[in-house]
Structure formats: C-alpha cells, structure tokens
Specification:
alpha/beta, twelve-stranded mixed beta sheet, two-stranded parallel ribbon, 16 strands, 39% helix, 16% strand
Length: 737
C-alpha cells in the first residue's frame, strides 16, 4: 500500500500532471490558451445523464442490421444531429446479410446428445427476455450438412494445427471443435479447412470467458454456461465491406460477385455454441490427452481425438439483401472547410448491443452535442458517423469510404474511431505520426477514480504491471505507447485501404465481465458491470472530443513523422530479430531432428513426434529500408514549420502533411490481398484483428515464403522514400520567404 501511495504521489507531481500549461501541438501560445478555455467549455456540456438517456432509448430493443429498432435508431440519431445544427444525411447501401433458418448440432456416437443452441433469459435482466433476438450463429458460414468425428484443436491457430499434426492426428474429413480466443473467429474455420476439416464448431471456454475468470451472469458479469458469442466468420484479412462488392461501393446498379466467387466467404459450415453444449462433446472425445496449454476450465479431461465422438452439423441460411444505413453529420469549418476531421462508431449490434457498440455511440453523441454548443465553430469541418452493419464485416463504413474515396483522399485529415468501452484505462492505437498528439490529449483529461490524468494512470499501470519491454520503452522515450492497428473495427477502410491517418480509442481493463456478442449485452448488464454511472463514458467523450477539436483547430497539423520513423525502426528491429531467431531455431531443430535427438527426447509411449525439418532461413538484405529511414530522419530534421507562420504557407504545409499517409499505400496492395494497400501495417493473415507491421516481409518470413522477401523490402523502402521526399518538400515550404 505504501509503495502504491508513493507512486500515485510521484505521478501527481510529475511534469506531465493534469492541469499544467504545457504547449499543445500545432498551436501558438495564445492559441493554446484559447483552446484550453474552449475545452473547459466543452467539458461543461458533457453529462452522464445524457449518455444514460440515449443508451436506454437506443438499447431498448435488439437493433441488428436490418431490424426495425435499428431503423428507428437511425432516425433518432439523424434527428438529434439535425437538432444540434449539423447537416445530416443517411447514406444507405444494399449488402448481403445471411440469417439462419436451420441450426442443428447432434452427437450420434458414442451416445446421443442434441445441443440446445439457445441462451436462457436471466432474473433481473428484463432485456434478456426479449423474443425478437437473433439466435447464436456465425454469419457468412456457408450452408452445409456434414457428419464426422470430432477433433479438438484448442484455439485453432496455425501453431495449434502444427502441434496437432505432430500428435499424428489429421483433420481430413473431420469436424474441428475450437475455443474462441487468440485469433479472429473467421480464421478458425479457414485454417481448419486448410487442414482438411469439413465443419467447425466454436465455443467460449470458461477458462477464457466464464466462471474461471469470475462470477457469471446474473450474479457477476462473466459469461454463464448458456452464453454464446455470435459473430461474422467473413475473412477480414481479404477485405472488409459487402461480401459481393470487394473494392467498390454496393450502390444501385453495382456489379456483384456470385456468392461462390466471394473470396472472403468462410469455406466450411460453422456454428458457435455455449460451453454447456460443448462439454458433452468434448467429454466424449478420446485419444491423446491434450497438451497442458490446450486444457480449459471445464471439469473434464481434455483430449484431442479423433472421435469416437461423431456429430452431425447442419446450418442453412436465408441469403438476404439488407439495407445498411449510416448516419453522417457535418458541421462546416469556419476557416478551412475543405479539410475534414471525422469521428465514427458503429450503431448496429448483436441484439441489444449496449456495451458493443452503444457505449461508444452515446459518447460520440455527447461529443457532437457539446461541440455544437460551443461559442466558436471548429476551424476545420467536423463529421460524425454512426455506421451500420459493422458486426458482419465493417460494411457501412467500408461502402461509404469506397463510394467517397476521391473526396476522402483529398480532404480527410484524421479519422478517429470508437467501438464500445468499459471502465479503466484509456487505450489508443493508430498512425505513429500521431503518438505525440495523443500523449498530449491524454495528459489533459482527468481519470475520475484517482484524480490523475488518464495519461499518468496508464503510465502507472505500465510501470507497475507492464512487461519489461514496455517499461523499458516508457523509461527511454517517456511516451505512452501507440499500438499499431490491424483490423476489427471501422477505421480499417480509412487507414488500410485509403491511407488516411487514423486512430482507435477505447477504455477498458476494469470492467467486471463481458457480455460480448451474447444475449446479455443489455442495459442491465452494462449499468451493473461495465460502466456504472456512465463515468467512463464521460471520459471517452472528453478524450475523443479533444482529439476532434485539437485536430480541427490546430494551425499547424500535429503530425510528427519523426515519431513515425522511430516506430518503423522498432518494427524493423523486430523483423530482423524474427528472421535471426527463426534462422537459429530452424538450424538447431534440423540438427536435432537429423541426429535423432529430438525424437529421443520425446516420450516413446505417446504419439507426439518431432516437427518436420524445414528449409534453411537465408540472410536477408534490409539495407533499402534502413537507407530510406535514414533519409526520412534527415528530411524530418530539416523541418522548421511553426504555428506562427503566415496562413498561406501553413495551408500549403498542412495540405502536404495531411495527405502524407497516402504515400505509404501501394495501388496494387499486398500480395494476395489487393484491397489492403498500406505497406506499414495490416491485419495478419493468421491473426485477423491483430496488426502485422511491415506485413509483406513479416508474413513472408513467418510463412517461410523467403523468395517474397526482396520484393517486399523494395516496396516498403519505396513508400518510405516517397514520405522522405514529402518531408523535404515541407521543409522547403517552411523556408520559403
């Protein structure tokens, strides 16, 4: 206790403590003072009662894409934005959205069992008693009726499949049962099919999301034994948006692929189930006892199989075309109306969707209302968007971004995203050039539980409980981390496809349980376990509002490409370490396998065998990237632009800065997935949500496609060289008389 008190006191009097008058990036001294007064006025208009009122209206009934209450919510939000003075429109797109008409899972051997495939209502949660709920299913599973033995594959990652093969177990002609977690759900059936599976069952294990973590709903907030995580199994690593219009907007008259031509459709029938339904299936599997790290929290012996558990899995869908409706509100800028700052959060949910997504939507509404009330209109145009059909594949945002791509590339300065929240710590991911900007934003918002700034609270967490690498980086730079973005929310089309600087903001770490994508994501669950009193909803509105207002009002746009260069150097160092480590491991394993020592170290009474020998890992030439980064360092060091420069010069500099991220994209995209154009970060082919930095080269090494590395190095270096040239142009503009 004494150590914690000392840490809090030290942080409270640190140089970056809340309330100091440190400069704000992009503002003159007088401008920063005026901006702080504006933000104080903004804060005065944010009220928890407003967030609660909107939540109770929007989450009163299920509001999935295409639902009646979803349409009412669109009209409610359109009306609110219009009342506050925004020019508001509803942008609609026709997208493919399946709903199930048949879901059946029965065990045929060694004894009969029929899965319930239902979630029960619970006492004290009136919303959970709704009758018009979407049942548990995985959208973009194909229709199918398959019968086969079960094989347990842990989380279904690439590493899990490789270990399964070492146990001598084949998935060919089998049905995989995997637990949720570690990777995006859509990659689990995809990888299972690569290894020969004909069906996939997914469940949430209580070790990950259930009674092992804490008390279950309704006593506590964690998933009870009937809870099921719904969700799309569309392959988001291929593209986002409408399944049938990859890369172009799904508007009237648009060309559409046939469903069997869609590259992002899941390959095998897939169904999510509860851990109550999973337990009898897993308990009936025999064969090798699962490795220790594969064992979950159910009171059974986890085994791999195959069989003797044999199941029949049947899923069929109505393949509907549904109208996805985005609400887009605009407030024209008073000084630079052709430069835009955009905020977004999706509004569709799996059923009531209180935490996901409406906790983010009500914070966005609070932000928009407060900005509209300010005495001074933002200098740049501000846009707010409530996106539809995010849950099925980021459809509303992607279709809108594809339709408006030309204007967005020309005018959009920043896209910032939220997607639900909880109590705890502010988290920011995004373009590395924004790292310093977001450190300042977090410095100037107060954490309601401790009185510290939210930045100092995050700093305390890293110092007290973070891993060694995170602590060392914080000690070295003094900056809070800025995570790279992969996919999984509506920033994806802006950043990964169009090359627009983007950020994703969230709060979490102290919520008491999760209702993620279940029947129980209700107002009742949210107000008890996620954000009681809507305290952190106010914090999210304050952080996001400062993000919008500072970017909208800055005389000099606060991008720092020195921060970008630093981040890419760390990505490159990780990549070099990956290559060296893989080379050493491959050499060592090959020696041990060839000499028989690997096999000799294994239990001869067990099926686990040694891994296969691998091709040697060559030495790679990363010099082109190093040289490009050195050129970028030089160009950034020559910059002398300040917010006190004349308006005409700053306008040219700002135009050069806000379009600079576009230079990091490549029209042809990444190998095998042309929709993803950004060459510095992308969602991983084998992770989905998780980001892969320098993805062309990193994944070529990870997947042992070594022949692809040189072209990837050249492509990355060329994009960084283009950015260095842009920074030289900015430096020349700043020097011009």
């Amino acid at each position: 206790m004494l150590k914690r008190t000392a840490l809090v006191l030290a942080l409270a009097f640190a140089p970056h403590a809340l309330g100091d008058e440190s400069p704000i990036k992009g503002f003159t001294e007088a401008g920063a003072e005026a901006q702080r007064l504006l933000e104080a006025e903004f804060d005065s208009y944010i009220h928890a009662e407003d967030l609660q009122g909107w939540m109770r209206e929007l989450a009163a009934e299920p509001h999935h894409a295409g639902s009646e209450h979803g349409r009412r919510n669109v009209e409610t939000m359109r009306r609110l934005f219009a009342e506050w003075g925004y020019e508001t429109n509803v942008a609609s797109y026709d997208v493919l959205l399946p709903t199930p008409n048949t879901r059946r899972l029965e065990m045929l051997e060694p004894h009969a069992f029929v899965a319930s495939l239902t979630e029960r209502s619970v006492d004290g949660d009136e919303s959970s008693e709704s009758t018009d709920l979407l049942p548990p299913y995985n959208s973009f599973s194909p229709d199918g009726d398959v019968t086969a033995e079960l094989v347990y594959v842990n989380y279904g990652t690439r590493e899990d499949h490789e270990l399964l093969a070492r146990h001598g177990v084949s998935l060919k002609g089998k049905i995989a049962i995997v637990r949720y977690g570690r990777i995006f759900r859509g990659l689990k059936p995809k990888m299972a099919a690569e290894y020969g599976a004909i069906g996939c069952i997914m469940y949430s294990d209580p070790a990950d999301d259930g009674y092992v973590r804490g008390e279950v709903y309704p006593v506590g907030g964690y998933k009870n034994d009937s809870g099921v995580q719904r969700g799309s199994v569309m392959d988001l690593a291929q593209h986002t948006g409408d399944l049938l219009t990859p890369g172009w907007a799904s508007v009237a008259g648009a060309e559409r692929l046939a469903r069997d031509e869609a590259p992002a459709m899941a390959p095998i029938p897939t169904l999510p189930i509860s851990y109550a339904d999973a337990q009898p299936l897993l308990d009936a599997i025999e064969g090798e006892v699962a490795p220790a790290e594969w064992r979950g929290g159910l009171p059974i012996t986890y085994r791999i199989g195959p069989g003797p558990a044999k199941v029949r899995l049947t899923v069929r869908f109505d393949w509907n075309t549904v109208t996805a409706s985005n609400v887009v509100a605009r407030l024209d800028g008073a000084v630079w109306p052709d430069q835009w700052v955009m905020r977004g959060n999706h509004h569709d949910g799996w059923n009531h969707g209180a935490a996901d997504p409406l906790s983010g939507i009500v914070a966005l509404l609070a932000e928009a209302q407060a900005i509209a009330k300010l005495d001074r209109r933002p200098a740049r145009t501000v846009l707010f968007a409530a996106w539809d059909s995010e849950e099925h594949g980021l459809m509303g945002s992607t279709e809108w971004a594809e339709e408006n791509a030309e204007a967005l590339r020309e005018k959009l300065v920043l896209y910032s995203n939220t997607d639900g929240m909880s109590r705890g710590f502010v988290r920011v991911g995004g373009s590395p050039s924004l790292a310093g900007f977001f450190n300042e934003v977090q410095r100037d918002v107060q954490d309601p539980q401790t009185g510290l700034s939210v930045a100092d609270r995050v700093r305390a967490r890293i110092l007290a409980t973070g891993d060694e690498a995170a602590r060392k980086e914080l000690d070295k730079s003094g900056r809070l981390p800025m995570g790279a973005l992969g996919s999984g929310s509506d920033y994806t089309p802006f950043l990964q496809h169009l090359g627009i600087a983007s950020a994703n903001l969230s709060i979490g770490g102290e919520g008491r349980g999760s209702s993620y994508h279940t029947r129980y994501d209700t107002i009742e669950h949210y107000e008890r376990f996620v954000d009681p009193g809507y305290t952190y909803g106010v914090v999210l509105a304050q952080v996001a509002g400062r993000t919008t207002l500072r970017m909208a009002n800055a005389r000099l746009l606060p991008f720092d490409f020195g921060e970008f260069a630093t981040a890419v150097k760390s990505y490159l160092a990780d990549l070099e370490q990956l290559a060296d480590g893989k080379r050493q491991q491959t050499e060592r394993n090959n020696r041990l396998i060839a000499s028989g020592q690997f096999a000799a170290a294994l239990d001869p009474t067990r099926a686990l065998g040694p891994p296969p020998q691998r091709a040697p890992v060559p030495h790679f030439n990363f010099a082109p990237i190093h040289n490009a980064l050195a050129a970028l360092d030089t160009a950034v060091a020559e910059q002398s632009a300040t917010p006190s420069m004349d308006d005409a010069t700053l306008e040219r500099i700002n135009q050069a800065l806000h379009t600079a991220e576009r230079l990091l994209t490549r029209e042809e995209g990444l190998p095998g997935r042309p929709w993803y154009r950004h060459q510095i970060y992308a969602p991983g082919r084998d992770t989905g949500y998780g980001a892969k930095t320098l993805p062309w080269v990193r994944e070529a090494i990870e997947h042992r496609r070594y022949e692809d590395v040189p072209a990837g190095v050249e492509a990355i270096a060329a994009r960084i060289d283009a950015l260095a040239e842009r920074m030289r142009q900015v430096a020349e503009l700043a020097k011009a008389p």
